[in-house]
Write a structure and sequence with these properties.
Layout lengths: L1 E4 L2 E3 L4 E3 L13 E8 L5 H21 L5 H5 L5 H7 L1 H20 L8 E3 L4 E4 L3 E10 L4
Parallel strand pairs: 3-5
Antiparallel strand pairs: 1-2, 1-4, 4-7, 5-7, 6-7
Length: 143
């Protein structure tokens, strides 16, 4: 996993994310970030969570009689690893729209020594081997 903020490499253990107000304009100065994570570096607990989300989509869609995320239904609700491999744009949109908190929770679990806080997501791009997420960060406040 590689995390950069303002063009400088940042140790992932010093990164957190904004849980309240995520995506809102920050009153603090922000800088761009890039998170690049290989598919095989995705935490197993996140993958379980993503698969659970997809399973819940199937259940909810059947109960309500229509699909909230039509491409998932059209593909018969595959697992997230399969989406990464065969449907990278759909995997990226699931991260961007639904699963970003779960991903950040499992990637950035540290609560001490924080330097950088992820404020938002501007883009998610999935390649054959990696996921690249961009957005804005701000410096963690020292108390």
């Amino acid at each position: 996993m590689k995390f950069t903020s303002a063009g400088k490499r940042v140790e992932p253990g010093t990164v957190s994310y904004r849980s309240l107000g995520f995506g809102e304009t920050s009153i603090l100065e922000t800088t761009p970030y890039t998170l690049e994570i290989d598919h095989d570096e995705l935490p197993a607990r996140f993958l379980e969570c993503a698969d659970g989300f997809i399973s819940e989509c199937r259940i909810d869609d059947k109960a309500q009689g229509y699909a909230d995320i039509a491409p998932l239904q059209q593909l018969d609700y595959p697992g997230f690893r399969q989406l990464l491999k065969n449907e990278p744009d759909l995997a990226a949109s699931l991260i961007r729209d639904y699963l970003y908190f779960e991903l950040f929770f499992y990637l950035f679990a540290s609560i001490s020594g924080l330097e950088i806080v992820i404020n938002d997501i501007a883009s998610v791009h999935v390649t054959g081997t990696a996921m690249i997420i961009t957005g804005q960060t701000f410096r963690a406040r020292r108390t």
